[in-house]
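Form 7-S
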Amino acid sequence: MLNKLIKCYQNFTRGLRRRWLRGTVIIALSGILLTVIMFGIVIYNLYYATVRTGLEAKARTATDFFTTHVARAYDDFYDSAFRYAESFREADRIEMQFINRDGSIMISTSAMAAGTAPGTPDVNAAFETGQISSWIGRAAVTEERVMATSAPLILSDGQVIGVMRYITSLRLVDERVMLNILVVAAVGLIVLGMALILNLIFIRYVITPVSEITKMSKRIADGSYGVQINNSYRDEIGDMVESINEMSLKIAQTEKIQAEFLSSISHELRTPLTAITGWGETLTYNDELDEDSKRGIGFMLKEAKRLTKMVEELLEFTKMQDGRFTLNIEEDIDIAAELEDAIFMFRELLHQDELGFDYHNDMAETVFISGDSSRLKQVFFNIFDNALKYGREGKRIDVYIGEVDEHVVITIRDFGSGVPEDELENLKMKFYKGSNSKERGHGIGLAVCEEIVKYHGGNVELSNAEGGGFMVTITLPLLEKFDED
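Output:
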């Protein structure tokens, strides 16, 4: 439970800044983008509507004046249009065209357009509906974006003698629209930057205490039960700190009670087990006992020895927990020789259970480590014993020793059914037994092994081997190397 809580804290600390900033950036950018798009649409329509309204008003006024005061009949249309075009004063920014009833440009303030037929929707609509019509597109010659407004020239008798057309470039309008959009976008980015700065300041006030809480919580998870986190917060973080402190005290109290109980019960069991073992061994020398009695005594001694081993492990584990565990360190232990001695002593048990044994030494030279040889043999025996119990159906145990990056690596593998992947990380927890385990035991063997190896500066890794079976990998730092010569 505590380990899960620590993982949650670590994930929270590592991901909070990233998730918060990512969420802020996404929301802010989405808002800015939406604002820029909406503003662009509005400003685009506003500017274009203004230009269109201006051209239509100019065209309406001009056509009314032209048909009323300049051209009175179709026969003088060309001469009137020519004179009117010559007097047009806005030719520098607006092109004016007179289009005849055939749809061809008769007179234009731009010499390039004369004689051509625009064929655009505004011209056709003006002839067909008799109403002013506008069009936005690209000029045929320059490919420039333009707006054109066509107004029909209607005489007093209702006759449509042609179309007066005004054309203006949209380049300046588009530039003005784009400038406004860029200004709004720049303001939005400034707002985004200010929002990010404010969020970073806010996150700092959140991340810093959470990081401190995570560090202290990890210490609690690593075994520093009872340690307290300084609580200077008066918000939800303060409530979390208070809960963790309370949990730490309760765990410390529980661990103390458990350790005292284990130590007490182990010492209490030692005396009767010693008596049972002693008297049992004495009775085995009594020649008056029949075979059934001797067999029963042998079974009693076997179980007493198993219980004695269990008691010894419990006592050692309680010493590890309360800091009374010690090692007799030697500076020149030949680790391969110690492993081979353990194999030799354990091989008879393997033979009794009809298990094959394969040992491979991949060390090119003799290597030495600093450590306690008896404790290391205890580790080997525990792991061999587990391999024997849980890998019995595989009928084989493989042991390998080699050197990797200034460390000696020892692997012990059985060929049993293995362990469910979701249980691997729990196997080194004290008193934990796998769901597939049918063997008797107390579940602290691997926990003791890991503690001993940690005292030697190494580590123990548990995994399911490729092809089936369970594998324990022990890594220990080397002291120095010596050539066998």
